[in-house]
Amino acid sequence: MESYLFPFDNLLCMLLGISFTVWFTLLLVFIIVPAVFGVSFGIRRLYMNTLLKIFEWATLRMERGAKEKNQQLYKPYSNGIIAKEPASLEQEIQEMRRSGSGLGGAEFDMSDIFYFCRRGVESIVDDEVTKRFTAEELESWNLLTRSNYNFHHISTRLTVLWGLGVLIRYGILLPLRYSGGVVTVLCFSGRMKSFLSEKVHLMCYRICVRALTAIITYHDSENKPKNGGICVANHTSPIDVIILASDGCYAMVGQVHGGLMGVIQRAMVKACPHIWFERSEVKDRHLVAKRLSDHVADKSKLPILIFPEGTCINNTSVMMFKKGSFEIGCTVYPVAIKYDPRFGEAFWNSSKFGMVNYLLHMMSSWAIVCSVWYLPPMSREEGEDAVQFANRVKAAIARKGGLADLLWDGGLKREKVKEVFKEEQQKLYSKVLVGGEED
Amino acid sequence: RWRLFSDLLYKHNFSEIIQRASKIFVSHSQITRLYSRFHSLDKGENGALSREDFQRIPELAINPLGDRIINAFFPEGEDQVNFRGFMRTLAHFRPVEDNEKNKDPSAGEPLNSRNNKLLFAFRLYDLDRDDKISRDELLQVLRMMVGVNISDEQLGSIADRTIQEADTNGDMCISFSEFIKVLEKVDVEQKMSIRFLH
After folding, report:
1. Is residue A323's pLDDT more than 80?
2. What part of A 395-424 touches B (C-beta under 8 Å)?
3. CA separation (Å) from B148 to A107, A433, B112, B151?
4. Binary contact (B161, A352; C-beta < 8 A)
5. CA distance B184 to chain A (A)
6. Which of A12, A105, A314, A393 would suit a FRET pair with A379, their CA atoms being 20 to 30 Å apart?
7. Domains of chain B (ranges plus CATH)?
8. What ipTM did this prediction achieve?
9. How far is CA A249 from CA A214, B13, B32, B150, in A?
10. Nearest to A358 by CA among A290, A229, A261
């Protein structure tokens, strides 16, 4: 018996040894060393361009396959699927009355109902809000099962390619990223506490970034946030933090979490003074505002990083900014972050996937490609209140990142819309009725 | 949990759905888009929508007549609407031009004819589904549309005036034929249509 096992044993050990060495070398050479010295080999860009060519080819093949079967490919369109008129309530109703009875400004017309009816049904077919809380649909397939809608149009060649993709992503990229992540957590933990300076802090985040195969382009770095200010950015995923923090040092604000997030939070606190709140403290807005102002007033402290949307949005739009951080009265440094969804969906749909599931998705996608724009600093102007200031900053971020600028609250992901908005609509319509009477 | 949209397309025999659906909505791409929308609204993933699923749409929730519109999707006494019902109701809003493509003489009056569009609107007013709009019903719908901003007396006089103008047979209610007469000059086809971009 033993004589049988012996050669296999040897072979097995040898194979394990070799693969371990290879994998460890890869880890060192591609992730740790460049992160420490802050250099880049340019390999990731090459990887990115190759992937794009492959995706285009895959989509063409699927289109061909669909044509052969005389069917149509399902093509998602993110710009809306129906034509909507931008006219206001008043405009449309008056127009309708004029064309109908020839009397504009009449008191009430039975045709008024058409306006509400059509608007209502339009929102049932396609609305601006609910689609922001699920991952964006892609126009070409990126060889990930999770983003495919035309499964039955895949040929054998495509299936092989997809299989290869699965092997690469789960066999090579995932373990590499996982170990990179472990190294980062080790770096952050107690041992390094006394030596941690800004440089080491940056290095740790850079390891994380390389481990995730994140290809980030920073624009306008001359506008990078400085001490004594607040940095605001649009929020898509927890990775936003890693992306920003690998290019500068920030103080984080947030709730104390339990579980995996809590461990990471506690590790980060040892590095720099962050501002963590207990759940009960979060409700007390004055307390929050006071602590933030105190931090900002101290010029030696790092700029605070805040995501005013309050929740993750799917990176096709920017939703309402909560006014809290804009009331403090210091310089605001807006930052726009736009992910390229072709390489992996960065959006965290927290109602569908937990943190662990999300990390698995992240680590097994092709790459995380994004652009970060640092916008020029803004301050509140004379006669502008916090809400207007927040909207101004939001508009600037939306414009730069090519995102839709929405007034809706990101909190609608989980909560119902407030009655006050319905009351506004009712008020508008009442004006049309009563205004007509005064004629 | 990583269920694919395409999985569902297969499971629920999508080609069959398209076949039957193409009598209601001619274009395959529109049917697919509506199915995708239906699926995204169906949070419980049970193949049917409830009223709560509709109320989750913020733009519909702030519409003063939101509840009446939602009601139009549900047949008498039912709490769930399946994809077929969803499409049948939405078909009322197809533009009239679309009918050129579907010249099936045996099909009967299409759901998106002028008459049927008017009937849809009539039913929004007719709360108890007795085929006439009483003063009470008109008042209730008006109240929904204006909220608290107009007094009872003013609203009452608006309702009285409207019924007076429309009522031709003296029963103090508006029947469907009276409704049609009042709106004969309005471009119903345009105002009650939704155009797909693709």
Report:
1. yes
2. 408, 412, 416-417, 421-424
3. 17, 13, 34, 7
4. no
5. 8
6. A314
7. 35-93 (1.10.238.10), 113-198 (1.10.238.10)
8. 0.89
9. 18, 54, 48, 56
10. A261
